[in-house]
Structure formats: structure tokens, C-alpha cells
Specification:
By secondary structure, the protein is of the alpha/beta class. The protein contains 13 helices and nine strands. A nine-stranded mixed β-sheet has the order 1-2-4-3-5-6-7-8-9. Helix 4 packs across helix 9. The two termini are 31 Å apart.
Length: 410
């Protein structure tokens, strides 16, 4: 199967189909990042049979083949200075925050609806076994800026009573992957004295606004060698020989045409650019991350009784042949997808905002653990030798990181 449209508005750019007539294959659904479409993952489908994986490449809305955003949807991403709510006296920041939150909830539901559609139409095998080592089911990944669609998915899973589909995705989704995200995608603050970033205004950004999308495309595909601290992050220029050149420099004109998509990233105009600007101003990405990783509520502590109850419930439901539902403390209110693994994949030679994101996430998880807060299970996977485009430059490493069971991929 190749391309097809989806009622969700997203576009299936490529579907590798059932591998080797397998009955227990895993379905890898992957969404792209900022100003790149999912043609950049085209080196993954040829590996599908080797990894007993069906690879489905998705273009987000406003990208080739997908449904464009309406004027009403795009208006939600603009700062509301001229909107009626502002004229009525509402605080502009609150209005903008509410607009972006609603916009991202809709994007999360679109991903959810796409997964339901795949299950219904393609008869995808249910997940079996542990999330990390099991078979079947779905691994859904968002690369780079596309990680925001993954936190939106986790933050907006409909309850059984709100789910318009007959599909229970908790029986299918094994893993949600944050694939090499920058720190902005998870809502973290930049490091002290942040380095050069083509898309962010700072004293170190000397790139004219009109040239920033092109500068970003080359910068983000370089190879960088980072030290262990913020002061030793390598910002630019990319490493030279013997390291590979920036991925963009290796693409033929035909490959650039099938992988790049600049329009959504045009500053002040494109939908990704508007989301980036307004989302950062209202800290929308931080709220999504918290709702995704702390579905019980931030600050809710684990209790011995809850842990015993969860173990007993899992044992009981495994015996009955269904997946366990984890309950909130005391109130015993179930949360969606309690056993899904959240996997954070980072690459050794990516741009500096990738390791800064990893360090920030690790620090947040360590603080939560010290406070005994309830948080989703997060697995950290590191790809040695890879850059931000490991799926193009070394696709086998990418497949192992996404669907394999290794903490260190090399």
C-alpha cells in the first residue's frame, strides 16, 4: 500500500503493508517535524520485513496530501489583539493560551482518530506482552517538533464514554515515542546563555528572518559534539571531516523535493511557525508535557496501597486476558492507557537543543521520583553516532531505537 487519505485530515504518505504475511507484526506510525515532510523517513520502509514491522509514514495537516487548516483554525494560532475577546476585556495571554490549548487538543484527537482508522481498516494485530518486548500493536512516534503531537495525543485521549470510535486503543498502543525532540517541544526553558538557533530570536542569531527556514534546514542536519554541561554544548558550525556533512547537503534535488516542505515553517505565516511563536509565549508545550506525563495530576504522590492495588489489578486483568487499568490514588478513577511506554529517543550528534531537552527531562523525572510523584513510565534510549536525521543517514539505528529493546543503540 502506498499513499491514502484519512478522515482525520492527516495523510498516509506511505504504508509498507503487512511484513512477510506476519500475524504478530508491530505497526510503526511516524509523524515528521518542522518544515520537513515524512518523505524524510523513506529509508525506513525497506527495513520493515527485517524488523517484523509495518511502517506507516504520516504527513501532518498543511503538508502535502493532508487537509489544509481552515482560516478559523489558523486564527487560533494568532495573538488575539484584534479578536472580540480582547476587545471585551479578556486578558490576551489567557485567550491565546486557551486558543492554543484547544488547537492542540484537536491535533491530538486527529492522531487518535487516525490510529483508530488504521485498526478498523487494516486489522492491525493487538498488542501482546510487555510494552518494551511485546509483539503486535502500535508504536506511534513524533520526530523533532512533531513530538508536540505525541504529548497532545497523550494529553487528549478520550474517555470510553467520549470515544466516538468502537476501537479501544488501549489494546493496541504499546509505545509513544518522543523522537529526538528539542527542548521547546517539551516546554523546557533554554539553557543559560543559549547558543545559536536559526528559528529563535537571540543575540546569537544573526540570520535574517527571511533566510531562517533555509538556515534551519541545514543547521538541524549537521553533526555536533557536545560536552556534559550547558557551557560545552556545541552550537555551530557543524563538525567537518571525518564526520559526515549536514544531511541536507547530501540530498539530491529530487530528494529535497520529496522531503522538504518550507511553507508551514515560514515565520509569521506558516502554521508551524505560528504555533511555535504563540505556543512558546503562552507555555502551551509545557502544559501538554505535564498532562501527558502526569495524567494523575502534578504533585500526586504514589502510595503503598495504590502500588499494591495496581499490581493486584494487573494480575487479575492479565488472567482475564485484557490489559490492566491503573487507578488514581484513593478515588480509583482510571486513566487512559495506563501501561503505555513513553520512550524518549535522543541522538548523540544532534543539534544542541536535543541534549538540553534530554537533560531537562531527566532532571524533571528525578525530581518527581524524589517526591514520589506518579508519572508515566518513561524509557530513555540513546543513539550513539546518530544525528537528528539518523533515520536518513543510518536508518537501521533508527529502527532499533524506535521498535527495539535497547537503551543504548550503536
Amino acid at each position: 500500500m502506498s499513499t491514502s487519505s484519512s478522515a482525520s485530515g492527516l495523510h498516509i504518505l506511505h504504508d509498507s503493508g503487512v511484513p512477510n504475511e506476519s500475524a504478530d507484526y508491530t505497526t510503526l506510525v511516524i509523524l515528521h517535524g518542522y518544515a520537513w515532510q515524512s518523505g524524510i523517513f523513506s529509508r525506513l520502509p525497506p527495513l520493515a520485513n527485517q524488523y517484523n514491522t509495518r511502517v506507516v509514514l504520516i504527513n501532518r495537516r498543511d503538508y502535502p496530501g493532508a487537509r489544509p487548516y481552515t482560516e478559523e483554525e489558523r486564527a487560533q494560532l494568532h495573538w488575539p489583539s484584534d479578536r472580540a475577546e480582547s476587545a471585551a476585556g479578556a486578558d490576551e495571554t489567557e485567550v491565546a493560551a486557551a486558543n492554543v490549548d484547544a488547537w492542540m487538543t484537536a491535533r491530538g484527537r486527529e492522531v487518535h482518530d487516525l490510529l483508530c482508522e488504521l485498526v478498523e481498516k487494516e486489522r492491525i494485530p493487538v498488542a501482546a506482552g510487555e510494552p518494551a518486548k511485546g509483539t503486535g500493536g502500535i508504536v506511534v512516534a513524533g520526530w523533532s517538533f512533531g513530538t508536540i503531537w505525541m504529548t497532545a495525543l497523550l494529553a487528549s485521549i478520550p474517555s470510553p464514554t467520549d470515544n466516538e470510535s468502537t476501537v479501544d486503543l488501549s489494546k493496541y498502543v504499546r509505545r509513544v515515542v518522543f523522537f529526538d525532540p528539542p527542548f521547546i517541544a517539551l516546554g523546557y526553558a533554554p539553557p543559560p546563555n543559549p547558543g545559536y538557533h536559526p528559528l529563535l530570536s537571540s543575540p546569537t542569531n544573526d540570520t535574517p528572518p527571511s533566510s531562517r527556514p533555509a538556515a534551519f534546514a541545514r543547521w538541524v542536519g549537521g553533526y555536533y559534539a557536545h560536552g556534559p554541561t550547558a557551557a560545552t554544548l556545541h552550537c555551530r558550525p557543524p563538525l567537518a571531516h571525518p564526520y559526515p556533512p549536514p544531511t541536507l547537503d547530501t540530498l539530491t534535488p529530487a530528494e529535497r523535493a520529496s522531503t522538504l516542505c518550507a511553507a508551514p515553517g515560514v515565520l509569521g505565516v506558516g502554521s508551524d511557525a505560528l504555533l511555535l511563536e504563540t505556543g512558546l509565549r503562552v507555555r502551551a508545550f509545557e502544559r501538554l508535557k505535564v498532562r501527558a506525563l502526569f495524567p494523575w495530576g502534578r504533585g500526586r504522590r504514589r502510595s503503598r496501597g495504590l502500588r499494591r492495588g495496581r499490581r493486584a489489578l494487573r494480575k487479575l486483568t492479565r488472567t482475564a486476558g485484557v490489559r490492566a487499568a491503573t487507578a488514581r490514588e484513593d478515588a480509583q478513577i482510571p486513566i487512559p492507557w495506563p501501561d503505555v511506554e513513553v520512550r524518549h529517543v535522543s541522538c548523540e550528534h544532534s543539534v544542541w537543543d536535543i541534549p538540553w531537552c534530554l537533560w531537562s527531562l531527566k532532571a524533571e523525572l528525578e525530581r518527581a521520583n524524589a517526591k514520589k510523584e506518579q508519572v508515566r513510565a518513561v524509557r530513555l534510549v540513546h543513539v550513539r553516532g546518530g544525528n537528528h536525521f539518523v533515520h536518513w543517514d543510518n536508518p537501521e539505528l533508527a529502527m532499533r531505537a524506535l521498535v527495539g529493546d535497547e537503551d543504548l543503540v550503536e
